[in-house]
Amino acid sequence: MVSRVVFGRGSFNQINEIIEPKRLNERAPFIYLIDDVFKSNTNFISRISLLYDDYIIFISSEEEPKTTQVDTLVEEIILKTKATPSGIIGIGGGTAMDLAKSVSVMLTNNGSSEEYQGWDLLKCPGVYHVGVPTISGTGAEVSRTAVLSGSKLKLGINSDFTPFDQVILDPELTCGVEKNQWFYTAMDCFIHCVESLNGNFINSFSKSYGKMAYSLCLDVFLNDDLNLEEKQNKLMMASWHGGMSIAYSQVGVAHALSYGLSYVLGVRHGLGNCVVFNHLEEFYAKDVAQFKQMIDKHQISLPKGICKSISQQQLDKMIDVAMNLNPLWENAIGEDWKSVITRSKLEKLYLKM
Ligand code: NAD
Ligand code: ZN
Fold it and tell me: Residue 336: which residues within 8 A CB-CB, separation 6 or more?
Protein backbone atom coordinates (compact mmCIF):
# COMPACT_ATOMS: atom_id res chain seq x y z
CA MET A 1 0.00 0.00 0.00
CA VAL A 2 0.98 3.63 -0.43
CA SER A 3 2.13 4.76 2.99
CA ARG A 4 1.33 8.48 2.78
CA VAL A 5 -1.26 10.40 0.80
CA VAL A 6 -2.68 13.91 0.74
CA PHE A 7 -5.89 14.84 -1.04
CA GLY A 8 -7.37 18.20 -1.90
CA ARG A 9 -7.76 20.84 -4.56
CA GLY A 10 -4.54 22.83 -4.50
CA SER A 11 -2.68 20.23 -2.41
CA PHE A 12 0.08 20.11 -5.05
CA ASN A 13 1.32 23.36 -3.47
CA GLN A 14 2.57 21.24 -0.56
CA ILE A 15 4.99 19.23 -2.68
CA ASN A 16 8.13 21.10 -1.65
CA GLU A 17 7.46 20.87 2.09
CA ILE A 18 6.42 17.21 1.77
CA ILE A 19 9.57 16.00 0.05
CA GLU A 20 12.23 18.22 1.63
CA PRO A 21 12.58 16.12 4.84
CA LYS A 22 13.38 13.16 2.59
CA ARG A 23 16.44 14.82 1.03
CA LEU A 24 19.42 12.59 1.79
CA ASN A 25 22.07 15.30 1.26
CA GLU A 26 22.87 18.20 -1.05
CA ARG A 27 24.42 15.94 -3.68
CA ALA A 28 21.41 13.61 -3.81
CA PRO A 29 18.80 15.32 -5.99
CA PHE A 30 15.09 14.93 -6.41
CA ILE A 31 14.38 14.04 -10.02
CA TYR A 32 11.01 14.90 -11.48
CA LEU A 33 9.62 12.81 -14.34
CA ILE A 34 6.86 15.02 -15.74
CA ASP A 35 4.48 14.45 -18.66
CA ASP A 36 5.64 16.83 -21.38
CA VAL A 37 2.12 18.19 -21.77
CA PHE A 38 3.16 20.45 -18.84
CA LYS A 39 6.42 21.59 -20.45
CA SER A 40 5.10 24.95 -21.59
CA ASN A 41 2.87 25.40 -18.54
CA THR A 42 5.13 27.78 -16.66
CA ASN A 43 2.50 28.41 -13.98
CA PHE A 44 2.55 24.76 -13.09
CA ILE A 45 6.31 24.22 -13.33
CA SER A 46 7.02 27.30 -11.22
CA ARG A 47 5.24 25.65 -8.29
CA ILE A 48 8.14 23.17 -8.07
CA SER A 49 11.25 24.39 -6.20
CA LEU A 50 14.38 22.94 -7.72
CA LEU A 51 17.10 23.05 -5.05
CA TYR A 52 20.77 21.99 -5.22
CA ASP A 53 21.07 19.45 -8.09
CA ASP A 54 17.36 18.72 -8.50
CA TYR A 55 16.19 18.49 -12.10
CA ILE A 56 13.23 17.71 -14.36
CA ILE A 57 13.02 15.16 -17.15
CA PHE A 58 10.02 15.68 -19.40
CA ILE A 59 8.40 12.43 -20.53
CA SER A 60 6.44 11.95 -23.73
CA SER A 61 3.35 9.83 -23.20
CA GLU A 62 2.87 9.41 -26.94
CA GLU A 63 3.85 5.80 -26.40
CA GLU A 64 3.33 3.67 -23.33
CA PRO A 65 6.40 2.90 -21.20
CA LYS A 66 8.93 0.38 -22.42
CA THR A 67 11.60 -1.57 -20.56
CA THR A 68 14.25 -0.10 -22.90
CA GLN A 69 13.05 3.41 -22.05
CA VAL A 70 13.32 2.67 -18.32
CA ASP A 71 16.83 1.25 -18.75
CA THR A 72 17.93 4.33 -20.72
CA LEU A 73 16.47 6.71 -18.13
CA VAL A 74 18.20 4.87 -15.29
CA GLU A 75 21.51 4.96 -17.15
CA GLU A 76 21.15 8.69 -17.86
CA ILE A 77 20.35 9.38 -14.21
CA ILE A 78 23.31 7.36 -12.94
CA LEU A 79 25.67 9.16 -15.35
CA LYS A 80 24.34 12.61 -14.54
CA THR A 81 23.90 12.29 -10.77
CA LYS A 82 26.71 12.36 -8.25
CA ALA A 83 24.88 10.26 -5.66
CA THR A 84 21.85 7.99 -5.48
CA PRO A 85 18.90 10.36 -5.88
CA SER A 86 16.90 11.40 -2.82
CA GLY A 87 13.72 10.66 -4.69
CA ILE A 88 11.88 10.24 -7.98
CA ILE A 89 8.68 12.19 -8.48
CA GLY A 90 6.31 11.11 -11.24
CA ILE A 91 3.80 13.71 -12.41
CA GLY A 92 1.29 12.80 -15.11
CA GLY A 93 -0.93 9.89 -16.04
CA GLY A 94 -0.27 6.17 -15.85
CA THR A 95 2.65 6.58 -18.26
CA ALA A 96 4.66 9.08 -16.19
CA MET A 97 3.74 7.38 -12.91
CA ASP A 98 4.71 3.89 -14.11
CA LEU A 99 8.00 5.26 -15.43
CA ALA A 100 8.69 6.92 -12.08
CA LYS A 101 7.94 3.72 -10.17
CA SER A 102 10.10 1.65 -12.53
CA VAL A 103 13.03 4.07 -12.45
CA SER A 104 12.89 4.17 -8.66
CA VAL A 105 13.21 0.41 -8.30
CA MET A 106 15.70 0.00 -11.14
CA LEU A 107 18.09 2.48 -9.50
CA THR A 108 18.60 -0.10 -6.75
CA ASN A 109 18.17 -3.44 -8.55
CA ASN A 110 20.78 -4.72 -11.02
CA GLY A 111 20.23 -5.56 -14.67
CA SER A 112 17.47 -4.65 -17.10
CA SER A 113 13.92 -3.82 -16.05
CA GLU A 114 12.81 -6.63 -18.36
CA GLU A 115 14.18 -9.14 -15.83
CA TYR A 116 11.65 -7.92 -13.27
CA GLN A 117 8.47 -8.08 -15.34
CA GLY A 118 6.37 -10.51 -13.37
CA TRP A 119 5.50 -10.99 -9.73
CA ASP A 120 7.79 -10.31 -6.75
CA LEU A 121 11.10 -10.53 -8.59
CA LEU A 122 12.73 -7.37 -7.19
CA LYS A 123 15.36 -7.91 -4.50
CA CYS A 124 15.75 -4.40 -3.03
CA PRO A 125 13.45 -1.48 -2.17
CA GLY A 126 13.62 1.39 -4.65
CA VAL A 127 14.55 4.98 -3.85
CA TYR A 128 11.84 7.16 -2.26
CA HIS A 129 9.18 7.80 -4.91
CA VAL A 130 6.22 10.13 -5.13
CA GLY A 131 3.24 9.98 -7.49
CA VAL A 132 1.14 12.93 -8.61
CA PRO A 133 -1.68 11.94 -10.99
CA THR A 134 -2.87 14.56 -13.47
CA ILE A 135 -5.55 12.41 -15.12
CA SER A 136 -7.82 9.97 -13.29
CA GLY A 137 -8.53 6.32 -13.92
CA THR A 138 -5.60 3.96 -14.12
CA GLY A 139 -5.08 3.60 -10.38
CA ALA A 140 -1.33 3.62 -11.10
CA GLU A 141 -1.04 6.08 -8.23
CA VAL A 142 -2.00 3.37 -5.77
CA SER A 143 -1.20 0.02 -7.39
CA ARG A 144 1.73 -2.34 -6.71
CA THR A 145 2.57 -2.59 -10.40
CA ALA A 146 4.40 -0.56 -13.03
CA VAL A 147 3.25 -1.73 -16.45
CA LEU A 148 5.95 -1.99 -19.13
CA SER A 149 6.26 -3.38 -22.64
CA GLY A 150 9.37 -5.49 -23.02
CA SER A 151 10.86 -7.37 -25.96
CA LYS A 152 8.53 -10.32 -25.40
CA LEU A 153 5.50 -9.06 -23.52
CA LYS A 154 3.58 -6.28 -21.84
CA LEU A 155 3.66 -7.06 -18.15
CA GLY A 156 4.08 -5.12 -14.94
CA ILE A 157 6.81 -5.03 -12.35
CA ASN A 158 4.54 -6.25 -9.56
CA SER A 159 6.08 -6.07 -6.12
CA ASP A 160 5.81 -4.66 -2.63
CA PHE A 161 8.62 -2.24 -3.54
CA THR A 162 6.70 -0.79 -6.49
CA PRO A 163 3.98 1.34 -4.77
CA PHE A 164 4.69 5.00 -4.20
CA ASP A 165 5.89 6.12 -0.76
CA GLN A 166 3.85 9.29 -1.09
CA VAL A 167 0.98 10.34 -3.33
CA ILE A 168 -0.46 13.80 -3.83
CA LEU A 169 -4.05 13.74 -5.08
CA ASP A 170 -4.96 17.17 -6.38
CA PRO A 171 -8.04 17.02 -8.65
CA GLU A 172 -7.31 20.55 -9.95
CA LEU A 173 -4.39 19.11 -11.90
CA THR A 174 -6.79 17.18 -14.14
CA CYS A 175 -8.34 20.38 -15.54
CA GLY A 176 -6.72 20.32 -18.98
CA VAL A 177 -7.48 16.73 -19.99
CA GLU A 178 -9.06 16.38 -23.44
CA LYS A 179 -12.59 14.89 -23.45
CA ASN A 180 -11.99 11.57 -25.21
CA GLN A 181 -8.85 10.86 -23.18
CA TRP A 182 -10.73 11.78 -20.00
CA PHE A 183 -13.34 9.19 -20.87
CA TYR A 184 -10.94 6.42 -21.96
CA THR A 185 -8.75 6.69 -18.86
CA ALA A 186 -11.80 6.91 -16.58
CA MET A 187 -13.22 3.78 -18.18
CA ASP A 188 -10.01 2.01 -17.25
CA CYS A 189 -11.18 2.53 -13.68
CA PHE A 190 -14.73 1.39 -14.44
CA ILE A 191 -13.36 -1.76 -16.09
CA HIS A 192 -10.99 -2.44 -13.16
CA CYS A 193 -14.06 -2.53 -10.91
CA VAL A 194 -16.10 -4.73 -13.25
CA GLU A 195 -13.28 -7.24 -13.61
CA SER A 196 -12.47 -7.26 -9.93
CA LEU A 197 -16.09 -7.53 -8.74
CA ASN A 198 -16.94 -10.28 -11.24
CA GLY A 199 -13.76 -12.29 -10.79
CA ASN A 200 -13.02 -15.44 -8.81
CA PHE A 201 -10.36 -13.67 -6.74
CA ILE A 202 -12.87 -11.27 -5.22
CA ASN A 203 -12.88 -10.92 -1.45
CA SER A 204 -14.41 -8.49 1.04
CA PHE A 205 -11.40 -6.18 0.96
CA SER A 206 -11.45 -5.76 -2.83
CA LYS A 207 -15.22 -5.72 -3.00
CA SER A 208 -15.57 -2.72 -0.68
CA TYR A 209 -13.17 -0.67 -2.82
CA GLY A 210 -14.54 -1.98 -6.12
CA LYS A 211 -18.16 -1.18 -5.23
CA MET A 212 -17.24 2.31 -4.10
CA ALA A 213 -15.30 3.06 -7.29
CA TYR A 214 -18.02 1.57 -9.49
CA SER A 215 -20.69 3.80 -8.00
CA LEU A 216 -18.42 6.87 -8.13
CA CYS A 217 -17.93 6.23 -11.87
CA LEU A 218 -21.68 5.97 -12.48
CA ASP A 219 -22.15 9.18 -10.52
CA VAL A 220 -19.51 11.04 -12.52
CA PHE A 221 -20.76 9.86 -15.90
CA LEU A 222 -24.52 9.61 -15.45
CA ASN A 223 -25.50 12.13 -12.76
CA ASP A 224 -26.30 15.55 -14.25
CA ASP A 225 -26.46 17.24 -10.84
CA LEU A 226 -22.70 17.18 -10.28
CA ASN A 227 -20.63 20.22 -11.16
CA LEU A 228 -17.23 19.93 -12.84
CA GLU A 229 -15.25 20.19 -9.61
CA GLU A 230 -17.30 17.46 -7.96
CA LYS A 231 -16.78 15.26 -11.01
CA GLN A 232 -13.02 15.79 -10.91
CA ASN A 233 -12.87 15.09 -7.17
CA LYS A 234 -15.01 11.98 -7.39
CA LEU A 235 -13.19 10.59 -10.41
CA MET A 236 -9.85 10.95 -8.67
CA MET A 237 -11.19 8.98 -5.72
CA ALA A 238 -12.75 6.40 -8.05
CA SER A 239 -9.35 5.86 -9.64
CA TRP A 240 -7.78 5.33 -6.21
CA HIS A 241 -10.47 2.90 -5.05
CA GLY A 242 -10.47 1.01 -8.35
CA GLY A 243 -6.71 0.60 -8.05
CA MET A 244 -7.09 -0.61 -4.47
CA SER A 245 -9.70 -3.09 -5.58
CA ILE A 246 -7.45 -4.77 -8.15
CA ALA A 247 -4.41 -4.58 -5.89
CA TYR A 248 -5.97 -7.31 -3.78
CA SER A 249 -7.77 -9.19 -6.58
CA GLN A 250 -7.06 -9.14 -10.32
CA VAL A 251 -8.28 -7.75 -13.63
CA GLY A 252 -9.87 -9.98 -16.27
CA VAL A 253 -10.89 -10.52 -19.90
CA ALA A 254 -10.80 -6.88 -21.08
CA HIS A 255 -7.30 -6.30 -19.77
CA ALA A 256 -5.96 -9.57 -21.17
CA LEU A 257 -7.21 -8.69 -24.66
CA SER A 258 -6.29 -5.03 -24.34
CA TYR A 259 -2.68 -5.94 -23.52
CA GLY A 260 -2.57 -7.83 -26.84
CA LEU A 261 -3.86 -4.78 -28.74
CA SER A 262 -1.42 -2.51 -27.02
CA TYR A 263 1.59 -4.77 -27.53
CA VAL A 264 1.06 -5.39 -31.25
CA LEU A 265 -0.71 -2.23 -32.44
CA GLY A 266 0.42 0.26 -29.81
CA VAL A 267 -3.19 1.04 -28.86
CA ARG A 268 -3.12 3.03 -25.61
CA HIS A 269 -4.41 1.36 -22.49
CA GLY A 270 -7.61 3.32 -21.81
CA LEU A 271 -8.71 3.33 -25.44
CA GLY A 272 -7.77 -0.35 -25.88
CA ASN A 273 -9.85 -1.31 -22.85
CA CYS A 274 -12.85 0.57 -24.24
CA VAL A 275 -12.51 -1.01 -27.69
CA VAL A 276 -12.34 -4.49 -26.13
CA PHE A 277 -14.97 -3.97 -23.43
CA ASN A 278 -17.53 -2.88 -26.03
CA HIS A 279 -17.53 -6.51 -27.26
CA LEU A 280 -17.59 -8.39 -23.97
CA GLU A 281 -21.34 -8.89 -23.40
CA GLU A 282 -20.69 -12.62 -23.10
CA PHE A 283 -18.60 -12.04 -19.97
CA TYR A 284 -19.92 -8.83 -18.37
CA ALA A 285 -23.41 -8.26 -19.88
CA LYS A 286 -24.86 -5.81 -17.32
CA ASP A 287 -21.72 -3.70 -17.16
CA VAL A 288 -21.24 -3.55 -20.92
CA ALA A 289 -24.80 -2.15 -21.11
CA GLN A 290 -23.85 0.55 -18.54
CA PHE A 291 -20.69 1.30 -20.50
CA LYS A 292 -22.68 1.79 -23.72
CA GLN A 293 -25.03 4.15 -21.90
CA MET A 294 -22.04 6.24 -20.76
CA ILE A 295 -20.55 6.24 -24.27
CA ASP A 296 -23.84 7.47 -25.74
CA LYS A 297 -24.42 10.11 -23.08
CA HIS A 298 -20.98 11.64 -23.60
CA GLN A 299 -20.98 11.14 -27.37
CA ILE A 300 -17.68 9.31 -27.35
CA SER A 301 -16.70 7.65 -30.59
CA LEU A 302 -14.65 4.47 -30.58
CA PRO A 303 -12.56 3.44 -33.56
CA LYS A 304 -13.92 0.44 -35.45
CA GLY A 305 -12.24 -2.31 -37.46
CA ILE A 306 -8.78 -1.81 -35.94
CA CYS A 307 -7.89 -5.49 -36.44
CA LYS A 308 -9.48 -5.78 -39.89
CA SER A 309 -6.35 -5.48 -41.96
CA ILE A 310 -3.69 -6.90 -39.68
CA SER A 311 -1.61 -9.94 -40.68
CA GLN A 312 -2.15 -13.44 -39.31
CA GLN A 313 1.25 -13.13 -37.64
CA GLN A 314 0.15 -9.99 -35.77
CA LEU A 315 -3.10 -11.64 -34.78
CA ASP A 316 -1.22 -14.67 -33.46
CA LYS A 317 1.09 -12.44 -31.44
CA MET A 318 -1.90 -10.62 -29.91
CA ILE A 319 -3.41 -13.95 -28.92
CA ASP A 320 -0.03 -15.09 -27.47
CA VAL A 321 0.21 -11.95 -25.33
CA ALA A 322 -3.38 -12.29 -24.12
CA MET A 323 -3.15 -16.02 -23.38
CA ASN A 324 0.08 -15.59 -21.50
CA LEU A 325 -1.75 -13.70 -18.74
CA ASN A 326 -2.72 -16.75 -16.73
CA PRO A 327 -3.75 -14.96 -13.49
CA LEU A 328 -6.16 -12.69 -15.39
CA TRP A 329 -7.92 -15.65 -17.00
CA GLU A 330 -7.99 -17.62 -13.78
CA ASN A 331 -9.65 -14.68 -12.13
CA ALA A 332 -12.16 -14.15 -14.93
CA ILE A 333 -13.00 -17.73 -15.88
CA GLY A 334 -11.44 -20.11 -13.36
CA GLU A 335 -8.56 -22.58 -13.19
CA ASP A 336 -9.98 -24.49 -16.11
CA TRP A 337 -10.02 -21.37 -18.32
CA LYS A 338 -8.24 -23.02 -21.25
CA SER A 339 -11.29 -25.17 -21.92
CA VAL A 340 -13.33 -21.99 -22.49
CA ILE A 341 -10.80 -19.52 -23.90
CA THR A 342 -9.37 -20.98 -27.09
CA ARG A 343 -7.18 -19.30 -29.68
CA SER A 344 -10.00 -19.36 -32.22
CA LYS A 345 -12.38 -17.72 -29.74
CA LEU A 346 -9.90 -14.89 -29.14
CA GLU A 347 -9.25 -14.56 -32.87
CA LYS A 348 -12.98 -14.07 -33.51
CA LEU A 349 -13.19 -11.49 -30.74
CA TYR A 350 -10.20 -9.52 -32.02
CA LEU A 351 -11.58 -9.54 -35.55
CA LYS A 352 -14.84 -7.98 -34.31
CA MET A 353 -12.97 -4.97 -32.86
P1 NAD B 1 -1.24 8.62 -20.15
O2 NAD B 1 -0.41 8.81 -18.95
O3 NAD B 1 -0.66 7.85 -21.28
O4 NAD B 1 -1.74 10.02 -20.66
C5 NAD B 1 -2.72 10.10 -21.67
C6 NAD B 1 -2.73 11.47 -22.31
O7 NAD B 1 -3.25 12.43 -21.39
C8 NAD B 1 -1.35 11.95 -22.69
O9 NAD B 1 -1.43 12.56 -23.94
C10 NAD B 1 -1.01 12.98 -21.62
O11 NAD B 1 -0.11 13.95 -22.09
C12 NAD B 1 -2.37 13.56 -21.34
N13 NAD B 1 -2.51 14.20 -20.04
C14 NAD B 1 -2.26 13.71 -18.80
N15 NAD B 1 -2.58 14.62 -17.85
C16 NAD B 1 -3.03 15.71 -18.50
C17 NAD B 1 -3.52 16.99 -18.08
N18 NAD B 1 -3.68 17.29 -16.78
N19 NAD B 1 -3.87 17.86 -19.04
C20 NAD B 1 -3.81 17.56 -20.35
N21 NAD B 1 -3.37 16.37 -20.80
C22 NAD B 1 -2.99 15.46 -19.89
O23 NAD B 1 -2.67 7.94 -19.83
P24 NAD B 1 -3.24 7.04 -18.70
O25 NAD B 1 -4.46 6.47 -19.28
O26 NAD B 1 -3.31 7.74 -17.41
O27 NAD B 1 -2.13 5.91 -18.52
C28 NAD B 1 -1.98 4.83 -19.40
C29 NAD B 1 -0.80 4.02 -18.94
O30 NAD B 1 -1.05 3.55 -17.62
C31 NAD B 1 -0.54 2.79 -19.77
O32 NAD B 1 0.84 2.68 -20.01
C33 NAD B 1 -1.02 1.65 -18.90
O34 NAD B 1 -0.34 0.44 -19.17
C35 NAD B 1 -0.73 2.18 -17.53
N36 NAD B 1 -1.54 1.59 -16.45
C37 NAD B 1 -0.91 1.34 -15.29
C38 NAD B 1 -1.60 0.81 -14.23
C39 NAD B 1 -0.89 0.51 -12.97
O40 NAD B 1 -1.51 0.04 -12.03
N41 NAD B 1 0.37 0.76 -12.86
C42 NAD B 1 -2.96 0.55 -14.34
C43 NAD B 1 -3.59 0.86 -15.54
C44 NAD B 1 -2.87 1.39 -16.59
ZN1 ZN C 1 -6.19 -0.91 -16.50
Answer: none
CA 309 to chain CA centroid, nearest Å: 29
State whether 170 and 216 are in the same domain.
no
| Same domain for 327 and 187 | yes
Write out pLDDT tens, residues 50-68. Answer: 999 999 999 999 999 999 9
Closest to 190 in 3D by CA, of 220, 155, 157: 220
Say yes or no: 142 and 39 in one domain: yes
Give distance in angstroms: CA of 270 to centre of ligand 2. Answer: 7
The residue range of the domain holding 283 is: 179-352
Q: How far does CA 56 lie from the centroid of its chain?
A: 21
Report pTM.
0.97
Last residue of a domain, one of 154, 174, 194: 174
| CA atoms of 62 and 15, how far apart (whole Å) | 26
Quote the CA–CA distance of 24 and 86 in Å, as a whole number.
Answer: 5
- What is the rounded average pLDDT for all residues in the chain? 97
Nearest CA, atom 40, ligand 1: 140
Residue 152 pLDDT greater than 90, yes or no: no
For residue 87, the domain's CATH number is 3.40.50.1970
The number of folded domains in the chain is 2
Q: Is residue 159 located within the same domain as residue 241?
A: no
Q: Are 279 and 349 in contact (CB under 8 A)?
A: yes
Residues 183 and 168 in one domain: no
**Domain identity same for 154 and 185:** no
Q: Based on the fold, state whether residues 14 and 163 are members of the same structural domain.
A: yes
Would you call 329 exposed, middle or buried from its count of C-beta atoms within 10 A (0-12, 13-18, 19+)? buried
327 Cα to the center of ligand 1, angstroms: 24
With a 6 Å cutoff on the Cβ, whether 90 touches ligand 1 is no
Largest CA distance in the chain: 59
User: Are 53 and 24 spatial neighbours (Cβ–Cβ below 8 Å)?
Assistant: no
